[in-house]
Write a structure and sequence with these properties.
alpha+beta; 134 residues
Length: 134
């Protein structure tokens, strides 16, 4: 099963991040779902972690959030992001999560230059989940 990235569907920064990830996911490994969608809610209900104010990665039956999710996503991207993610795991989780929280708390200001979400191109739309994977 493909790893699934759950993102805040109401956040312009998060939408831009999905496009950024998809452009660097050359093998089209990831699938995407908004946390507010029926799929997102069902997947989060099955996870052990809370993803409020966080990206979540569902991979091999585990739910990763915050910096752990970001770095696990990064490991599957193209060079140099996979290498940077590997180095990122050397940073203690407490510090990584603090840096993650700092960005999350500023994400709406970071995306302030955009007033609406960019629609995904057709080749990316097929990677968004509208029903639960089997």
């Amino acid at each position: 099963m493909h790893p699934i990235i759950l993102f805040d569907g109401d956040c312009l920064f998060c939408h831009a991040s999905v496009h950024w990830i998809a452009a660097r996911d050359r093998k089209a490994v990831f699938r995407f779902a908004a946390q507010q969608s029926a799929v997102g809610q069902a997947l989060l209900a099955n996870g052990e972690a809370s993803a409020k104010d966080s990206v979540a990665l569902i991979e091999n039956g585990c739910c990763y959030v915050k910096s752990a999710a970001v770095l696990r996503i990064g490991r599957r991207l193209s060079w140099p992001w996979n290498w940077l993610a590997a180095v990122g795991f050397l940073v203690p989780r407490l510090l990584r999560d603090h840096m993650y929280d700092t960005i999350v708390n500023r994400r709406h200001r970071l995306a302030a230059k955009r007033d609406r979400c960019q629609l995904p191109p057709p080749e990316l739309r097929s990677r968004f989940l509208y029903k639960l994977p089997r």
